[in-house]
Design a protein that fits this description.
Strand order of the largest sheet: 2-1-3-4
Radius of gyration: 17 Å
CATH architecture of the largest domain: Up-down Bundle
Shape: globular
Number of strands: 4
Number of helices: 7
Bound molecules: glutathione
CATH topology of the largest domain: Glutathione S-transferase Yfyf (Class Pi), Chain A, domain 2
């Protein structure tokens, strides 16, 4: 299978993390947003939404959107529980990630750390900060309730909800959101990083997760 990604995409990091945790090999095809690769006809032919990540299967079929890809990869594994109520709980947290968590955290990281092209004091970025902190407060409360052995959506084995919520939570400090006040989140991040098969954002340079240079 081939993953179409960009070097720093947090949404594509979810897919690489999932594949690593499952022990599934992925060939990376890394594209550049700045070079306009995501607007090229060859990419648009496989990516109806013109975004990464896209997973290309060996038979040529392609899957867009990180949630859909995680769902596909996790079939038949404990990362997608078999029981309908447990599945519904996983979907609750996937929906939370897409609607309330990922966007403000990704915007803060992209524009305040990577591009440095926005004023953090602008109304728009103050709103993103407020939304990001609110999302992390909800995640913190959930993890506190789940206890030190629980996971975001499930009780014993982690699920694709943990994988989905990990990257932009881990990268939050790049957008000026410090995690010191979120003890349950910090413990959960550390537990994910201890899992067999964990993948760093830059696998050859795990220490450079927060680097803003063009090359890892
Ligand atoms: N909802 C999508 C969001 C994907 C997304 O935002 N991808 C970004 C990179 S992290 C992208 O392709 N940005 C370039 C663009 O939108 O032109 C998912 O979860 O996969």
């Amino acid at each position: 299978m081939k993953l179409h990604d960009t070097l720093r995409s947090g949404n594509a990091w979810k897919v690489r993390l999932m594949a690593g945790l499952l022990g599934v090999p992925l060939e990376r095809h890394t594209r550049s947003i700045d070079r306009g690769d995501l607007r090229r006809p060859d990419f648009l032919a496989i990516a109806p939404l013109a975004q990464v990540p896209v997973l290309e299967l060996d038979d040529g079929h392609c899957i867009a959107e990180s949630m859909a890809i995680l769902h596909f990869l996790a079939q038949g594994s404990p990362w997608w529980p078999a029981e309908p109520l447990a599945q519904a709980r996983v979907l609750t947290w996937l929906s939370f990630e897409q609607e309330r968590h990922m966007k403000p955290l990704a915007k803060l990281r992209l524009h305040l750390a990577l591009h440095r092209d926005r004023d953090p004091a602008s109304p728009e970025f103050r709103t993103y900060r407020h939304e990001a902190l609110a999302a992390l407060a909800l995640l913190e409360a959930r993890l506190e309730r789940q206890g030190p052995d629980g996971w975001v959506a499930t009780d014993t084995h982690p699920s694709i909800a943990d994988v989905a919520l990990y990257p932009y939570t881990r990268l939050a400090p790049m957008g000026g959101i410090e995690l010191q006040g979120f003890a349950a989140i910090r413990a959960w991040l550390a537990r994910i990083e201890d899992l067999h098969g964990y993948q760093a954002l830059f696998p050859a340079h795990p220490e450079k997760t927060f680097s803003t240079s063009e090359t890892p």
